[in-house]
Design a protein that fits this description.
Distance between the termini: 36 Å
Order of helices and strands: EHEHEHEHEHHEHHE
Oligomer: single chain
Mean pLDDT: 95
Number of domains: 1
Largest sheet: 7 strands, parallel
CATH topology: Rossmann fold
Low-confidence stretches: none
Structural class: alpha/beta
Strand content: 5-15%
Bound molecules: NADP nicotinamide-adenine-dinucleotide phosphate
CATH class: Alpha Beta
Helix content: 40-55%
Shape: globular
Number of helices: 8
Radius of gyration: 18 Å
Length: 256
């Protein structure tokens, strides 16, 4: 649908959007943003109860389809079954936002195999399993948009976060490669790299660590989950129809 200036309005009516890590934090705001734009939502996280609550809230606010698909994204078979169920339930998948992610920080000399494996499985291997399944649906449709939530840590590195940085840098390499591979099928792939955003994830930081971080952010505040959600909505929309393989950094100027 176009307005008087000939520009499409951002609308996702009749579009199915799959969002991982949608039970709270940034993923919850991404779900809200797509719901307000009229999308039908398939929400993924481990907590069925959390997803039910989110869907109930979104259905009353914006009255569209929203269904929970409790899934542990570290489990390949679970991920593949979930995507197949979503395809059967909705008939199509237009947008995938892979946002689920965790940290298990530690210095390399002391890092346990499990901390490495959990972070790589949750943040990066999941992206491979999700995208392999979703891309088959999108290729058949000849339409799709894939978004990965990476991090500035994936671009710059961070002491004590080698596992997290490797997983987030991996998402950038994966996304850029897939943009090249899938562009001819009308599938765009983009990456969002947030700085420090106010969610449960950064409540693990001490007040002193927070103070040090704030002193280095030119905008002098942490980001809000909504400020990441609006980038996702833009990138998945026709307003960004010529953008693929890009990394959009949203860090208040921290690494400008
Ligand atoms: N907050 C920041 O400052 C920041 C900065 C840069 C990038 N990011 C990235 O943004 C994304 C969202 O972060 P956030 O701050 O919103 O984190 P959060 O509040 O901790 O939420 C993480 C989400 O991921 C889900 N999740 C975790 N492990 C999962 C698994 N194995 N299977 C399925 N879902 C799983 C969680 O749900 P369940 O626990 O119910 O499974 C939850 O919905 C992450 O990828 C993070 O790395 C965050």
């Amino acid at each position: 649908m176009q307005n008087h200036s000939g520009v499409d309005r951002i609308g996702f009516e009749s579009k199915t959007v799959v969002i991982t890590g949608a039970s709270r934090g940034i993923g919850l705001e991404i779900a809200r943003a797509f719901a307000e734009a009229g999308a039908s939502l398939a929400l993924i996280s481990r907590s069925e109860e959390g997803l039910q609550r989110v869907c109930e809230g979104l259905r009353t606010q914006a009255s569209q389809k929203c269904f929970p698909y409790p899934t542990d994204v570290r489990q390949k078979v679970e991920v593949e079954r979930t995507i197949e169920r979503i395809r059967e339930d909705f008939g199509a998948i237009h947008v995938l936002v892979h946002n689920a992610g965790i940290t298990r920080d530690g210095l390399i000399a002391r890092m346990q195999d499990q901390a490495w494996q959990d972070v790589l499985d949750t943040n990066l291997n999941s992206a491979f399993w999700l995208t392999r399944s979703v891309s088959k649906v999108m290729i058949r449709q000849r339409e799709g948009s894939i978004l990965y939530i990476s991090s500035v840590v994936g671009l710059r590195g961070n002491a004590g976060q080698s596992n997290y940085a490797a997983s987030k840098a991996g998402l950038i390499g994966l996304g850029k490669s897939l943009a090249k591979e899938l562009g001819s099928r009308n599938i765009r792939v983009n990456i969002v790299a947030p700085g420090f955003i106010e969610t449960e994830m950064i409540q693990q930081l001490s007040p002193q660590q927070k103070e040090r971080i704030l002193a280095n952010i030119p905008l002098r505040r942490l980001g809000r989950p909504k400020e990441i959600a609006s980038i996702c909505l833009f990138l998945a929309s026709s307003w960004a129809s010529y953008i693929t393989g890009s990394v959009i950094q949203a860090d208040g100027g921290l690494f400008a």
